[in-house]
Amino acid sequence: MGREMGSLSSTETNTSDLRKAIGGSQAMVPLDETTSGDGQGHFGNLDQITSSHGLADGTGASGHNGDGLSLETSSGPKVLQQGDYEHNTSLISSLSVDSIEQHLESLRGSLHLTPRAVTLKCLPLVQQLIEDDAGWIFKDAVDPVALGLPDYFEVVKNPMHLTLIEKKLENELYHDLETFARDVKLVFENAILYNGEPSDVGIIAKGLLVRFQKDFEELIQGTFFRAFCQQLHSLTLALLNLLSFLYTGIKEAQVRLERVGEACTLCGCQRRLFEPTVLYCNGVCGMQPIRRNGNYYSDTKKQNNWCEECYKLLGDGEKIMLDDNTEIEKMQLQSFKNDGIPEEAWVQCDDCSSWVHQICALFNGRKNKSSAAYRCPKCHIRAANNGEVSEDSMKGANDLPHCKLSLAIENGLQQALTTAYTEKAVDRGISIHQVEKANGLTVRVVSNMDKKHLVREEVSRSRPRPSL
């Protein structure tokens, strides 16, 4: 079955703790580098973690046998064959191999690192450029007045210097490697642009640019810090632990995180976080938003909320009317902290045992069935190439059911196209049958949700209801 893992709902939960899979007993091992509630990361020995949890070979609790996929259920192990895979929990089974590969390519656009990891990896590169014999030329911002360059800002539209990059790294303002590399290249490209490639400054800038590109590629592969560490002789234990993190290549570290289930094997991210939900007070303050990280009180269903000030104004024996027309007393309200951070849920592939984000896998957790297996996109491609997937399971938009909205849009589209074909035929003096047409256009509504939003009585009275 496709086992799911729910999302973390509070920053008080330490993401370095072992994460339990809902409905199973498999534990997710700690992150090699993670961010806890205080926003600070820590480092761990990933080799030790994988060996202690028996995950050094990259397999999870679920395994394969010779006949099929073996899963533990309440009635004992069950062997799942091809027909047992659930086709309603994911859109992957209805897509062609080319479409799935395009989807995976869109997810793996770049390596995913935290701002702190980018700083730790990239700061030595910038410092080496600054300490170079010619680094002083590019260290500080160009002063056109002092240097007598009145047309500098007319030629160079985006000035950049190494000290600014260093400060941005120290303040953890870079969220990805591409932005950092682009800024460093901009420093030398600006020098070449203004001074010209044959000039002395242009030649020096081109040399440092080539050197940076070489060091940056070695950083990705993990060889830059190997050479860097060999130059150091006496190191403290803390520095050794830090260098053990830097020693590992970025791609190598990413593969290891995915292998032990701490990063999505599809997108490479560890946690996909969403904007927190804004909570509003139902008390006398008039639907004011409850401040982040502040305490508030709510009913058991968390449909009605009160800030601390409004909670104090509630009478001890006073009956409180909720939005669902039920009554409770003040003592029945529970205290919470407004520090929840929604996180995308996970699901485990029953073929390769890897963990992926449900949104990356196009997985619908609401339709997950315990008796059916789940196959991730990569395993689906492998099965399709081996002839294990029937082409009949691949559906297009035309196979989806119609509704009134899709019918209205599709008919309107066809009428507009017919009018356009007729006008083009008249303009060209040809028959409408000779006009090139866009055939096979299909319109379907894939998401249409009716939502009911309850407002306070004061708001309802202030705005008259529209006449039907």
Order of helices and strands: EEEHEEEHHHHHHHHHHHEEHEEEEEHHH
Q: How are strands sequenced across the largest beta sheet?
A: 1-12-13
Instruction: Name the structural class.
Output: mainly alpha
Q: What is the 3D shape?
A: extended
| Helicity range | 25-40%
Distance between the termini: 48 Å
Instruction: Count the E strands.
Output: 13
Quick one: biggest sheet?
A: 3 strands, antiparallel
Per DSSP, the total helix count is 16
Count of spatially separate domains: 4
Averaging pLDDT over every residue, what do you get?
74
Question: Approximately what portion of the residues adopt beta-strand conformation?
Answer: 5-15%
**Radius of gyration over alpha carbons?**
30 Å
Question: How would you describe this structure in keywords?
Answer:
single chain; 468 residues; mainly alpha; Histone Acetyltransferase, Chain A; Cysteine Rich Protein; 4 domains; three-stranded antiparallel sheet; 16 helices; 36% helix
